[in-house]
Design a protein that fits this description.
Distance between the termini: 84 Å
Number of strands: 18
Number of helices: 30
Radius of gyration: 29 Å
Shape: globular
Number of domains: 3
Largest sheet: 9 strands, mixed
C-alpha cells in the first residue's frame, strides 16, 4: 500500500513537471506563430537566431560538425554549448539551423524540474507548480530563453536552481548521495558557464555560516563544504571530477571520518592555490566597479575607453524595470518579496536562495542582465504567498465545501493575475532576427569572394554573425571587445579612409604576429603600443598622426574587407567614443558632431530636425540652440532602378563647418561636422567616395557595402 502511494506521488510530480514544461514551451511558440510568414527572418527556408552572441556558439558547433579547424581561430569548438549542440544534432533528425533555433525554448524550460522538485521536498507541490509556470515565462527569463536566443542563458539559471535543489536536500536529508550530486552539479555548471564562480561561492558561504553558527558538531556539513571546494577549484573539469569522485569515495568509508577536518583544510588550501577568488573579483570589477578608462600594462601604457560603459545590459536600471523583469509587474514583485520572507521564516532552508536573489538585486547597480537570477526565487515567493492567503481565506468559512471552492477560486484567479502581464509581454516582445534575409544574402556573396584566413573589419556587434556567415576572421567581436582592441577599429571607421586603410593593414598583420608570439610564450603588448614603438615613436598620438604620411606597411599576408552596414548608423556615436580620446592621457580630445533623424518639419524658411537642431534655409545656417553655424554643403543621395547610388551636392558656404546629407532611400537626414563627414564610414557607405588606390568596392547595396582593401 505504501509503495502504491509512493508511485502515485511520483506520478503526480511527474505530471506537474510535464504540464509546466509543456506550458513553457508552448508560450515560446507564440513568436514562431507571429512570424511564421515573415520571410525576412528566414534564410534558406530556416528561421535565423535573434541574438548576436548565439552566432559564436553556432560557429563552434558548425566547425565541430564539419571537422574543420583554423590557425588562430577564435571558434569555440571546445565549449559546452558547442558540444551539447553537436550531440543533439547527431541524435535528432533535424537540421542544424532548426536545432539551434529551438534549443533555447526546450532547454530553458527545464527550469520547471528543479523548482517543482524543491517544492515537492517541502511538501508544497502545487506551490512549486505555480512558481514553475511563472519562472519559466517571467519577463527577464523569457527574454533570454525564447526561441532563437541561442546562448548560454539556455541553462545558466537551470543549473543553479538544480544546485539549490541538491543543497536543500543535502541539508534536509543528510544523505551522502547529495554530496556527490552537489559536486557534480557545480562541475557541470562551471563547464557550461565559466562565470559561475560568484554564485557557487555564495552558496558555499551560506552553508559555511549555517554550519559554524548553528550546526558545528555535524560532520556532514563540513563534508559538504569540502566537496564543494574541490568542485570549485580553478582546475580543468576532468581533474575536479576525479578529485570529487575520490573524495566522495573517502567520505563513504567510516574509517576516514576522523580526517574530515584535514580534508576540509586541504580543500581550502587547494582552492586558494588554484586562484579561487580571482574570477570572482574580475566579475565584480567588470560589472560593478566599472572604470570609464582602462590603462594597458605595457611598456608604453595607453588609455582606452571601457566597453562596459556602452553595454546596455551592464547599465543601471530603474526600480520599475527591475521589478517587471523579475515578476512581470511591480505589485507582483513587491508581494513576491513578502512571500519570500514568509517562506524563509516557515522553511529556513529556503534562505539558500539568497545568492540567486542577491545577484538579481545586483541589477540595480550592475545592469539588467542580473535580473534573471532573481526570477525563480521571486516566483517561489509569490506562489507561496498566494497559497498561504488562500488557506487563510478558506478558514474564514464554516462550510468546508464553500471554503474549498473559494480557496480554489482565489488560487486560479490569483495565478491568472500573476501570469497575465508576463504572457502579455511575450505577445508584445516581437524581437527580430539579428540580420534579415537580404543582409545574410549579402554575407553569403562575401563568403564566396573571401578565404577563411581573410579579415572583415566591422564593429564588434557584427563580429560573431560575420564569422558564422562569411567564415572569415574579425578583429573584434562580442567577446573580444576591450577598449584596446576596439580603439583601432573605431579609429578606422571614424577617421579619413586613407588613415583607415593603413591602420587596417597594420592591425591585421600585427594581430597575426601577436598570435604567433603567444604560441611561443613571448611577451606581447597591445597592437597600438607595439606599432608605436616599432615605428620609432614614444608617443602613440605621433604614430597615429604619421598615418597621414607615406609610412612603410607590413607585407600583405591576407585580404581585408570593410563591412559597412546601414544598421551601424544607429550606433555610430558609440563607435566613435572609443577613438575620441587622447590614448596617452585618457582625456577626450574631439567630439565630432553627428546627428541622425528621420523626423523633421519642413517649411519655406526652415527645416526643424528636432532636439534644437534647425536649418535656416534663407541664410544657410544651422542653429544648435542659440549657436549659429554656417552650412558648408547639402547632399541628397538616392538609388536608381539598378540600385546604383545617385548624388546631388550643393555647396552653400565654402567656409562652412557643417554638412547635411539627405539619404532619400532611408528618409534620413544626417547633420555632420567636418570630422564626422570625412569619416571612412560616411564616405564609403553613405557617399561611396573611395580612393581607387586603396579600396575596391565588391558589394554596394542599400543594406550594406563591402570594400576590399588593395594595400
Amino acid at each position: 500500500m505504501n509503495l502504491l502511494k509512493i508511485e502515485k506521488s511520483h506520478l503526480y510530480i511527474i505530471g506537474l513537471i510535464v504540464l509546466a514544461f509543456s506550458f513553457s514551451v508552448l508560450v515560446r511558440m507564440i513568436w514562431v506563430y507571429q512570424f511564421s510568414d515573415v520571410e525576412a527572418f528566414k534564410f534558406a527556408g530556416q528561421f535565423m537566431i535573434n541574438t548576436n552572441d548565439g552566432y559564436f556558439w553556432a560557429e563552434g558547433a558548425r566547425d565541430l560538425l564539419n571537422g574543420t579547424s583554423q590557425l588562430h581561430s577564435l571558434s569555440p569548438v571546445e565549449s559546452a554549448p558547442t558540444w551539447l549542440t553537436y550531440v543533439i544534432v547527431k541524435l535528432l533528425p533535424f537540421s542544424f539551423e532548426t536545432i539551434i533555433f529551438y534549443m533555447p525554448a526546450f532547454l530553458g524550460s527545464l527550469i520547471v524540474i528543479p523548482m517543482i522538485l524543491i517544492a515537492h521536498n517541502l511538501k508544497l507541490p502545487e506551490v512549486g507548480f505555480l512558481a514553475a509556470l511563472l519562472a519559466s515565462i517571467a519577463v527577464s527569463y523569457y527574454n533570454r530563453t525564447m526561441v532563437g536566443y541561442y546562448d548560454t542563458d539556455m541553462l545558466t539559471i537551470v543549473f543553479p536552481v538544480f544546485l539549490l535543489w541538491s543543497l536543500i536536500l543535502a541539508l534536509r536529508t543528510q544523505e551522502e548521495k547529495y554530496l556527490l550530486i552537489t559536486a557534480l552539479e557545480i562541475i557541470a555548471y562551471r563547464w557550461w558557464y565559466p562565470q559561475s564562480y560568484s554564485l557557487e561561492f555564495s552558496y558555499f558561504g551560506l552553508i559555511l555560516a549555517y554550519a559554524v553558527i548553528f550546526d558545528r558538531k555535524n560532520g556532514f556539513n563540513f563534508k559538504l563544504l569540502a566537496i564543494m571546494l574541490f568542485a570549485m577549484m580553478g582546475l580543468p573539469s576532468i581533474w575536479r571530477l576525479v578529485l570529487v569522485v575520490l573524495i566522495y569515495g573517502i567520505f563513504k568509508q567510516a574509517k576516514f571520518q576522523k580526517y574530515i577536518w584535514y580534508i576540509l583544510g586541504a580543500s581550502v588550501g587547494l582552492f586558494l592555490l588554484t586562484g579561487g577568488f580571482d574570477p570572482i573579483w574580475a566579475q565584480l570589477k567588470g560589472y560593478v566597479f566599472k572604470d570609464v578608462v582602462e590603462v594597458s600594462q605595457d611598456s608604453l601604457p595607453l588609455h582606452f575607453y571601457s566597453v562596459m560603459q556602452t553595454v546596455r545590459e551592464a547599465g543601471q536600471i530603474d526600480f520599475v524595470t527591475f521589478a517587471e523583469r523579475i515578476s512581470g509587474h511591480t505589485i507582483t514583485f513587491v508581494l513576491s518579496m513578502v512571500g519570500c520572507a514568509v517562506l524563509a521564516w516557515r522553511y529556513p532552508v529556503m534562505l539558500l536562495g539568497l545568492p540567486l536573489l542577491g545577484l538579481g538585486f545586483l541589477a540595480l547597480i550592475g545592469g539588467l542582465r542580473f535580473t534573471i537570477y532573481a526570477v525563480p526565487i521571486g516566483a517561489f515567493g509569490i506562489a507561496y504567498l498566494l497559497f498561504t492567503c488562500s488557506v487563510f481565506i478558506q478558514d474564514l468559512f464554516i462550510n468546508e465545501k464553500v471554503g474549498q471552492v473559494i480557496k480554489s477560486s482565489v488560487v486560479i484567479l490569483g495565478a491568472l493575475a500573476i501570469l497575465y502581464p508576463n504572457i502579455l509581454h511575450v505577445i508584445d516582445y516581437r524581437v527580430p532576427t539579428v540580420f534579415n534575409k537580404n543582409e545574410v544574402e549579402l554575407l553569403d556573396k562575401l563568403k564566396a569572394m573571401s578565404d577563411r584566413e581573410d579579415y572583415v573589419v566591422s564593429w564588434w556587434d557584427y563580429g560573431y554573425p560575420l564569422r558564422y556567415y562569411v567564415d572569415t576572421k574579425t578583429l573584434i567581436d562580442g567577446g573580444k571587445h576591450s577598449g584596446e582592441v576596439n580603439f583601432p577599429v573605431s579609429y578606422m571607421l571614424t577617421n579619413p579612409s586613407d588613415k583607415a586603410a593603413k591602420l587596417a593593414r597594420l592591425e591585421v598583420e600585427y594581430t597575426e604576429n601577436t598570435f604567433a608570439k603567444a604560441e611561443k610564450n613571448e611577451t606581447v603588448m597591445n597592437n597600438t603600443a607595439q606599432m608605436t614603438l616599432d615605428a620609432g615613436f614614444k608617443n602613440a598620438n605621433d604614430f597615429l598622426d604619421s598615418l597621414d604620411t607615406n609610412i612603410t606597411l607590413p607585407t600583405k599576408t591576407r585580404d581585408i574587407f570593410f563591412y559597412l552596414p546601414y544598421r551601424m548608423m544607429g550606433i555610430y556615436p558609440t563607435v566613435a567614443q572609443f577613438s575620441n580620446l587622447d590614448i596617452m592621457s585618457g582625456k577626450t580630445v574631439r567630439q565630432p558632431f553627428f546627428f541622425q533623424t528621420n523626423r523633421f518639419q519642413d517649411s519655406a524658411e526652415k527645416m526643424d530636425f528636432g532636439q534644437g537642431v534647425i536649418l535656416d534655409k534663407t541664410k544657410g545656417i544651422i542653429k544648435l540652440g542659440v549657436q549659429e553655424i554656417p552650412l558648408k554643403r547639402f547632399i541628397k543621395t538616392g538609388y536608381n532602378k539598378e540600385k546604383k547610388l545617385v548624388k546631388d551636392q550643393n555647396i552653400v558656404h565654402a567656409n562652412g563647418q557643417f554638412s547635411i546629407i539627405y539619404m532619400q532611400a532611408y528618409n534620413t537626414f544626417l547633420i555632420l561636422d567636418e570630422d564626422a563627414f570625412n569619416a571612412s564610414y560616411i564616405q564609403l557607405f553613405v557617399l561611396e567616395n573611395y580612393d581607387e588606390k586603396l579600396f575596391e568596392p565588391i558589394i554596394l547595396d542599400p543594406y550594406a557595402k563591402v570594400y576590399k582593401l588593395k594595400i
